[in-house]
Amino acid sequence: MARNVDLNLDQGTDTVFQIELIDSDQEPMDLTGFRAEASFTRNIESGTRTNIKTEIPDPVTDGYLHLTITGDSSETIKATRYFYDVNLIDSASSIKERVMQGTLTIDPAVTKDA
Fold first, then answer.
1. pTM (2 decimals)?
2. Which of 38, 53, 112, 114 is the most exposed place for a label (fewest CB within 10 A)?
3. Using CA atoms, how far apart are residues 47 and 79, in angstroms rounded to an integer?
4. CB 54 within 8 A of CB 2
């Protein structure tokens, strides 16, 4: 079952969310042989999605996953609330599992670069 987590970022800033995935024994999940994908959308019924850069950093046995949204990309996205999800894909079997979901709120930037 996917964990529900609400995320916030400031529009126009580089943001990295570090997520720790835990297995059923409450230990860090070994992510060897997995890849991740994540995206967000304003409307769940919409086919339009924006990808989020995902990375499983070394050592992969520590269970961490990084989600990165650059300031350049968030600066051009409307500041509002979105829905997102994160999936792990087993490289050997191609089985996809949603591990996290929730809302992503992009807070507006008041000050802009000149």
1. 0.88
2. 114
3. 19
4. no
**Nearest 10 degrees: Cα torsion 47, 71, 66, 107:** -70
Q: Which of 67, 73, 84 is nearest to 21 (CA)?
A: 67
pLDDT along the chain (114 residues), means of 10: 92 95 93 96 86 96 96 91 96 94 91 60
Helix, strand or coil for residue 60?
Answer: helix
Whether 61 contacts 30, CB under 8 Å? yes
Cβ atoms of residues 7 and 57 within 8 Å: no
Which two three-digit tokens encode residue 2?
Answer: 């996917």
